[in-house]
Amino acid sequence: MSAALTDDIDDSVIRLGGHKGLEVELLPFGATIRSIRLFGQELTLNYPDPADYQTDQFYLGATAGRVANRIAKGRFELNGVAYQLDCNNGPNHLHGGVTGFNRREWQVLKQQSDSVQLYLRSADGDQGYPGAVQVWQQFRIVDKQLELSFLALSSKDTVLNLTNHCYFNLNNDKLNDGGSSVENHQLQLTATHYLPTDEHAIPTGERRAVAGTAFDFTNAKLVGPALKQQDQQLALANGFDHCFIWQDADAAELKLMAVLSSSQSGRQLEVLSTQPGLQLYTGNFLAAPFAARQGICLEAQGWPDAINQLGFPGTLLKAGELYQQQIVYKFS
Ligand code: GLA
Q1: pLDDT of 327 above 60
Q2: pTM of the prediction?
Q3: 297: buried, middle or exposed (CB in 10 Å: 19+, 13-18, 0-12)?
Q4: Domain tally for the chain?
């Protein structure tokens, strides 16, 4: 699996699928999902012009890394060495720093009608992280599902936590008032626990049961009313911006994490992943050209700030060890 063995190909918008109703557009910039359409209906938020992704502030459709989500104060210690990363989100490091994987031009290694493999090499010291990291990300359409497979290798022990940052909106009409908000979406999350955070969105270390709280999505329910519930955690984050956790799941197995649907369009999305967590983000700070709550992110990932939190499943990647994760978006 060497980049040198494969040919570079066209760098423009990558179009996959189409013949079974699911069409996907990707950009090498940020390994970004630019569009997902099912039978012609757009299911994600996007910019009309690919150039707009260069100035995007919302991680729209992008691949987040090296470490998606936050690292408290951008600090961690590994093998007795203290590392200081950029703090690009208040006092914390977010989504890999100022020039994270979302702002990098990925190389197109191999493209077919239903799949593409993208590649990125991140140098030792990139954004302050140890180790030269190579990442291979494959996007593949199988029937009505889009599969994302992440493989990575590092030259030194490091931390890695990759995810995709698509904003979904399954409504037919995303521009008029009734259709624009995801508050009318039904959401089910199979997690029984989540990670409460401090005022800077860093987990406190507690694993809190969702039962009896606004965070209980074990049975499908509407997003809007849940957002309006009285809850100190919702107030802190201005909505949902929390990691739901699957504590006992087998790391190698795909599990169903989330089911999102819109009764307005009848469309449904299932999110499956090998990851141990899923950050639910209700677009709390989305702004022009979008609006708050116009999209919902279901980011399957490792637990935030895991490198600094005792007992959290690790985001450590040992030198020469293969990082392997999968995310599946299944539409109907
Ligand atoms: C993640 C974070 C949010 C926000 C978005 C990007 O979902 O958890 O707080 O930073 O990314 O806007």
Answers
A1: yes
A2: 0.94
A3: buried
A4: 1
